[in-house]
Amino acid sequence: MPQSFMPNGSSTLTTNPFDDDKLREECGVFGIFGSPDATAHTALGLHALQHRGQEAAGITSLNGQEFTTRRVLGQVADNFTSQEVIDSLPGNSAIGHVRYSTTGETILRNCQPLFAEFSSGGFAVAHNGNLTNAAHLKKQLISRGSIFQSTSDTEVILHLIATSHFRGLMDRFVDALRQLEGAYSLVTLTREGLIGVRDPLGVRPLVLGKLDKAYIMCSETCALDIIGAEYVRDVEPGEVVIVTDEGIKSIKPFPETKPRPCIFEHVYFARPDSFMDSLSVYDVRKRIGAELARENTVDADLVIPVPDSGTPAAIGFAQESGIPFELGIIRNHYVGRTFIEPSDQIRHFGVKLKHNANKWFIEGKKIVLVDDSIVRGTTSLKIVNMMREAGAAEVHMRIASPPTAHSCFYGVDTPERSKLLAGRMDVDAMCEYIKADSLSFLSIDGLYRAVNHKDGRNNSCPAHCDACFTGDYPTFLTDQSEEEEKANQLNLIASTGS
Amino acid sequence: MPQSFMPNGSSTLTTNPFDDDKLREECGVFGIFGSPDATAHTALGLHALQHRGQEAAGITSLNGQEFTTRRVLGQVADNFTSQEVIDSLPGNSAIGHVRYSTTGETILRNCQPLFAEFSSGGFAVAHNGNLTNAAHLKKQLISRGSIFQSTSDTEVILHLIATSHFRGLMDRFVDALRQLEGAYSLVTLTREGLIGVRDPLGVRPLVLGKLDKAYIMCSETCALDIIGAEYVRDVEPGEVVIVTDEGIKSIKPFPETKPRPCIFEHVYFARPDSFMDSLSVYDVRKRIGAELARENTVDADLVIPVPDSGTPAAIGFAQESGIPFELGIIRNHYVGRTFIEPSDQIRHFGVKLKHNANKWFIEGKKIVLVDDSIVRGTTSLKIVNMMREAGAAEVHMRIASPPTAHSCFYGVDTPERSKLLAGRMDVDAMCEYIKADSLSFLSIDGLYRAVNHKDGRNNSCPAHCDACFTGDYPTFLTDQSEEEEKANQLNLIASTGS
Amino acid sequence: MPQSFMPNGSSTLTTNPFDDDKLREECGVFGIFGSPDATAHTALGLHALQHRGQEAAGITSLNGQEFTTRRVLGQVADNFTSQEVIDSLPGNSAIGHVRYSTTGETILRNCQPLFAEFSSGGFAVAHNGNLTNAAHLKKQLISRGSIFQSTSDTEVILHLIATSHFRGLMDRFVDALRQLEGAYSLVTLTREGLIGVRDPLGVRPLVLGKLDKAYIMCSETCALDIIGAEYVRDVEPGEVVIVTDEGIKSIKPFPETKPRPCIFEHVYFARPDSFMDSLSVYDVRKRIGAELARENTVDADLVIPVPDSGTPAAIGFAQESGIPFELGIIRNHYVGRTFIEPSDQIRHFGVKLKHNANKWFIEGKKIVLVDDSIVRGTTSLKIVNMMREAGAAEVHMRIASPPTAHSCFYGVDTPERSKLLAGRMDVDAMCEYIKADSLSFLSIDGLYRAVNHKDGRNNSCPAHCDACFTGDYPTFLTDQSEEEEKANQLNLIASTGS
Amino acid sequence: MPQSFMPNGSSTLTTNPFDDDKLREECGVFGIFGSPDATAHTALGLHALQHRGQEAAGITSLNGQEFTTRRVLGQVADNFTSQEVIDSLPGNSAIGHVRYSTTGETILRNCQPLFAEFSSGGFAVAHNGNLTNAAHLKKQLISRGSIFQSTSDTEVILHLIATSHFRGLMDRFVDALRQLEGAYSLVTLTREGLIGVRDPLGVRPLVLGKLDKAYIMCSETCALDIIGAEYVRDVEPGEVVIVTDEGIKSIKPFPETKPRPCIFEHVYFARPDSFMDSLSVYDVRKRIGAELARENTVDADLVIPVPDSGTPAAIGFAQESGIPFELGIIRNHYVGRTFIEPSDQIRHFGVKLKHNANKWFIEGKKIVLVDDSIVRGTTSLKIVNMMREAGAAEVHMRIASPPTAHSCFYGVDTPERSKLLAGRMDVDAMCEYIKADSLSFLSIDGLYRAVNHKDGRNNSCPAHCDACFTGDYPTFLTDQSEEEEKANQLNLIASTGS
């Protein structure tokens, strides 16, 4: 692990490590300019975006000339809502960040916003996404004399700005952006104003809102709703939006490309009350459920959502199929953040800590279980088993997306391919593995239809990034390639040597 | 405030004080005898009962001769699941308690289980309910030389046992029970075994379960499910169940009475996956929704539950009325435990911290909102307003219970009558207050029908305690009467004097 | 270990467990009546008494009718000096307590002041000393229905008052006191006033002071100095001093006895700036050093104190003998409170964590080391060794008290007799054990001479409790006798059986 | 205040802010190479150096290729002595740092050791001293693209290395050192070995020791004693000592200069059991006391040290003058680390929290008080007053150094000149201010005599840095000059404008 002259943070704050079988969005961002309550609004916005990252949160505010930053391990509601904290982050503009991260990396020095004092002025940044050439750039920067403080790819951006040969801060920033490869939606704060950037493909979302005279840029519209702000429009892929005292302006410093926003945001990441790509996420999920019902008819007594993410698709499924929708699995809302190092006796009960079967309704019934996706399959296995123990006559699993067979390199925490159930086996084997009576996934065309592409996926020019389903990555993967090349060379040497 | 020679605990751990508009069950209990994993099972059981009390938790285990107790402010999952803690509570039997308490009283010395070392042996107790003559008994006990350590009514039971003129511990315990008035479901642990008690009216629930050779007594069946135990039966009102190495036996030391279990458990307190009075709580709630739809027809486009407690009734309402069920309000699952002393700017956003309207579906629609009850009305007002801001054409509020017009003295935290909306105004005024287009409550007969009393409430001999709706209290209220008498005397003196 | 219905405290706060080789006073008390700054004065007084107990501290204040208590594990300066804490303990009178306790018992529920609400009113008490019949009384009280919350002997006093057959609180208190055996200096607070009590033998100290209109009673005069109060006189053995709004009065409810104040207070416990039995503690210690020099002449180059407790005796020794006094051992003032569970590598360095030899002065010299006492001998061995490693030519150990060969049952933490070096071997063997060139202790007569009894100890009627040196205990030891009797019976049974 | 992308630490950990009237050494350093117990030895060494910095501590260990760092606010004994912590810092070599810092800056990101991963390898550094051109260099580095994470001058060294045009790490390091101005004793750790550096003037100390095969470099010899290591020699001014697996070597990369080690180390900073410049610190202080007695005779009854730093000089004074040495002021050893935000009532008692007069000895006596130095004079005033209240007939203050009239820029925390009592007034006025009967300081020549320069100070070529007494600074003060110039220009503009 890289070392730094920064304090070590705790790495114990993880959520239910023995039970999480979902892909995880790694970040959410929020920025506001021109509000007397900038910090409170940012805290509220981050709270609404908490589902995009639950392990760390941070806010940088700007009071005229002075930046103030507070970053913590933990959730927004627990750390950023007291009067004392709000008052400690003064100013009319602020940016914020929520973060999920893989175990071992949840340390404070990787938390955002990051800040640097350049000769051209102070600069704070919050980043949602992942750069696919960060390691490559970092190596170059270190060889030229840059000292890195974190293992975060975001710090690369700061050093690119610091060492740029351009003059003004804005030119240096654009110079830095042009060297990046991968996915990034950024909000940044300088003494001049708030800047929002979405990468040329627009992989991760970023929306623009307005509240009185203040402008907001944030990951999802639900963060606008909570503060009563109006949704203006999506920041466009490849767009740089600059908000200053003079008003708002927009530049497009990148060569034009066909956008490829992430389709999985619709399936699982985004909150159902958000709008994304001009669509209601909840409505898309219901339509996914309807597509699923059409693609895979089943003779059953009840449609049961795997709570809570499967619920909208289950409602859509039930409405399309006419099979009654029932809450057959009851969720315990008190499953905390912690369960740190649970005892063996506790760990043994796994899925039951979160869910219980509603026996009365299940006993003797043929049921359709609707879930959004299958990652490792461990939870699906337990849920199917729970239904059988509750007396279900038949258990038919329906998944509201295609098989997740490939890793994401754009800011989503995915297990290695070898741990993805769909990376290891075909649908029949998966059905057997989870011990369901039948298992069906939504087709990739069905998914595109649900997000308003009537003819399904245009394979020659797909409208979304769907790499996790198709393996079709829309950017170079420089770091990944260099690593593989290095591994190959080692293998070559090893095999030559033997 | 009474003072004690015990350490003061913190009183800051409250859940969203600015946003809670629900009645709160004050406690849940769990006891197990004869399990090699007694403490882990108790922790899991309490976790499943966490909805009955979120502010404090405690477990006492018994390892042959030695009792060990651990009590904390906070939730079970955060405090009782590590191997270290499980190992620190050794033994084959254990009892546990979760607790909610009113602000200012959340101090550790009021937490349970309580323990006393009598000359007749050690005795631990966990209590769900509330005694209505505790103050009266306490005064007598102090005058005879007892020293109280807590403000908890449960401590009265310990001192009654300690000072009883009977000989054996069991006889002393029964002697103590006979002096109690009010509601109590108890689990106690002695060196002989586990004892469960339900008061003669059976106001609060208590069920009996079995896992291999171990017996369990706990508040709800969901706590049996989580450990895979079998539900045997309810402990009967007035029954004392004793589990020892010799097996299980039952005595009924009280004069026979007609039971009056709390009907509000069905409406709100119990978990929907529990069985109560031999009924599925989820099914009762769906039938309540159906009754509600039958009693108050409405012309609407959507049925929307107020999440999460209104959901089963909303499903029942939708199925009965044929109006589609939709998730029109999205809940933020990250509303933490804390929000301690939120800033004014944060507090201002009130209900939005927890809920957001699903605008796409609401705009232009006539909607039926289904909630379980109205307490102060503050949340209802905000929710109706949220629907209007999201563009609802009409908002019809339907409540899955009769108006809550009276305080509970049996272990439920109720505001003073003057703060209950239904204690202050009639239904029309309430409708106007919450700014709905229409407002209807379920009738008391409709509620009884939903819990399987086809002819509604038998007013001469009601089958449940329904005092919060009817003001018909099934026991004397000794402490309440003595306080009122005292107040009257003071008033008399005051008015005579003037 | 007895169990209670009280929260468990932490038991980790101990001071250098691997290095403490001193007897420890178990408590200090302070009480004040009639001061607008009662709590601040109590905090300051306890701070001055911190050497009498470093592990826990507590204050109870009385504001007219209401008592407030705060008890913590830790030191006064760290817990009772902020404005917030001072303000949280309002009132014109207060009592406080500092406590040392043996490992495993340092739990909050044993901390003081203890408080009880009697039918005759509220009562707080802080206790320095130890009752020798507490277990005996406790057993009786439990059999009559009292419930104990702590393992502290002080709680016995509360239950004796609560169950007394007398009427007024004062009569009940005296009734309780008359049943006590052992050592106790008490300060208590009731709604009527402040009461100070010293047991008939006056084993532990208690002094009376005055500051403007306020009266103070506390363990040592240094606690008067810190708040600028005037020292009035010692509370007399067997005296009960009562301070109320009406003024101060004194009663003597016990049969007259010859006092036996603890002589070890002069040797080690009391602060050198205190007056005790009308003598300057520093001056007594210097005179002890002079006696020591007279009793045991030695040919040496330097007199070196074992810091810090040996310093006054070393100065006296140097002045009497004419051998120069030098700081040959330098103390590290940063040896904290903690060193909790030190690693083996750290533990290995033992005495060096606290002390270092001043080599320059020691090399090649014949030195006299002066220490106050030897308990286990482990530190003496290390110090002698440290001197040899620093090059000392000869090391002569001189101890400013007689050999400590017996346990104390009056409020001093002593190891079992078998762990006292002087309980296991004679002076020659001790000298060999600690590897000194010579070892001498002060004679018991020399010690009495230093505390102003010119003819030494009057063996037929000694003026002090000196049981730790002589084994001559001035009270019955009821609990001790009953335990031994029980052990003997068990042995009898065992030997008969075999 | 400069901002960074690093987490903010707490700034509340200060020691008795209302009572500290001493200059404070800002740091101590320790490094070891080739010991199986490197981390434990470093922890022990830092513990012995705790007097050089009590607010923060840190250790970096190196286990073959991997560096591990732990830094905390707080003391060594409380944070670095458990087996768990020792085990978390694996390796055969380690460096450590203790730190004092001015209020507002005590934040974790300024704590040391600092670490950077260069292209030429990992590099950890701990620094005692202060650079007088750090701001100047930092500005240049930022303009070239370096990003600073801390406000510590030490980080400048890292960036100078990172951006050096030389190739190997050692050459880059020397290149960096040559650009530094001011005082620095450094220990650094690379994958090749341990490097110790002392600036050309040798302002701050650094000594070399040996334990079996391991080499140690640290601030004072007392840190060698605690681990049983042998003192080899002082690292020479301008020397770079390199310890690797190949052994130890030394280079001198700077132009030769006459050394000027800090003379105040002898007066106050160093521990009395250390050797410094080949002299026993304790012996020097006794000789200072003797010089003081010779320079300023006084007719008195007692010599009383102001504890604890005045004690050796007082012993020397007493031995020289023949006036008896007595402990007239008793120190309370429990004055904690905290007293954070003390209440007004507590603050009021100021010096009494730490000290009490030993009245018995003082009453009616003419006393000589011996202290090491006077900074602001606030404590001296209180101590003199305390002596008068205890009944002293005359109070003669003798100071074991010349008047401290100038700020230190070499790593000692000094108040601004205007707050130094000797910066504001002459000796007579100072005597009046502290209300003593007489006041004398040691002459600068007397001080030099005591440190073995028989002829006193050689004014044309002084052997020590004595700038705090003389204002004769041995280096340029670039940052100070640039600031003054800037201030002058502003004044010029202001006065021209008016």
From TrEMBL, chains A, B, C, D:
EC number from the UniProt entry: 2.4.2.14
Record's catalysed reaction(s): 5-phospho-beta-D-ribosylamine + L-glutamate + diphosphate = 5-phospho-alpha-D-ribose 1-diphosphate + L-glutamine + H2O
Pfam family, one: GATase_6
Pathway the protein takes part in: Purine metabolism; IMP biosynthesis via de novo pathway; N(1)-(5-phospho-D-ribosyl)glycinamide from 5-phospho-alpha-D-ribose 1-diphosphate: step 1/2
Domain (Glutamine amidotransferase type-2) ranges: 27-246
Cofactor binding, note field: Binds 1 [4Fe-4S] cluster per subunit.
Key words, A-Z: 4Fe-4S, Glutamine amidotransferase, Glycosyltransferase, Iron, Iron-sulfur, Magnesium, Metal-binding, Purine biosynthesis, Transferase
Residue numbers binding Mg(2+): 309, 371-372
Gene3D superfamilies: 3.40.50.2020, Glutamine Phosphoribosylpyrophosphate, subunit 1, domain 1
One example GO MF annotation: 4 iron, 4 sulfur cluster binding
Enzyme class: transferase
Presence of the UniProt keyword Amino-acid biosynthesis in the record: no
Gene Ontology BP terms: 'de novo' IMP biosynthetic process; purine nucleobase biosynthetic process
Residues noted as binding [4Fe-4S] cluster in the record, renumbered to the chain: 262, 408, 465, 468
Recorded superkingdom: Bacteria
PANTHER family associated with the record: AMIDOPHOSPHORIBOSYLTRANSFERASE
HAMAP family: PurF (MF_01931)
Protein family membership: In the C-terminal section; belongs to the purine/pyrimidine phosphoribosyltransferase family.
Name of this protein: Amidophosphoribosyltransferase
The species this protein was found in: Kordiimonas sediminis
Gene field: purF
